[in-house]
Specification:
binds fe (ii) ion; 0% strand; mainly alpha
């Protein structure tokens, strides 16, 4: 969760190296996942339909942010992108073996199909 107690927590005194930027993007992705988890918990914890709708909209924006960050990560680290694609292919093969169809085969986390 957010740590706003120290206003200098997120400040850095110099520019990041590329490797540090890659690590920062991974941290950003983790933050987006945590936000989705928390928003979902709040949706499940209220019966107020309007609040559910607003929070769900915000939660879905966080999902889009993950897509943006994953695309940036693939750009910054193409070798990592290859690993993402390998993992996706492994799961697709398992799904195919079990006769499971992908719900949306055109959108993936590790690689965008052309
Ligand atoms: Fe976000």
């Amino acid at each position: 969760m957010a740590a706003f107690g120290n206003p200098f927590t997120a400040n850095v005194e110099r520019k990041m190296t590329k490797q540090e930027l890659i690590q920062a993007i991974r941290l950003n992705i983790a933050g987006e996942l945590e936000a989705i988890y928390v928003y979902d918990a709040h949706i499940q914890a209220t019966d107020d339909e309007f609040a559910k709708k607003v929070i769900a909209d915000i939660r879905d924006e966080e999902k889009a942010h993950i897509g943006e960050l994953m695309t940036l990560l693939r750009y910054l680290d193409p070798t990592e992108a290859e690993k993402f694609a390998e993992g996706e292919e492994e799961v697709r093969e398992m799904m195919e073996e079990l006769g499971i169809k992908e719900s949306n085969p055109n959108t993936t986390v590790g690689s965008l199909k052309k």
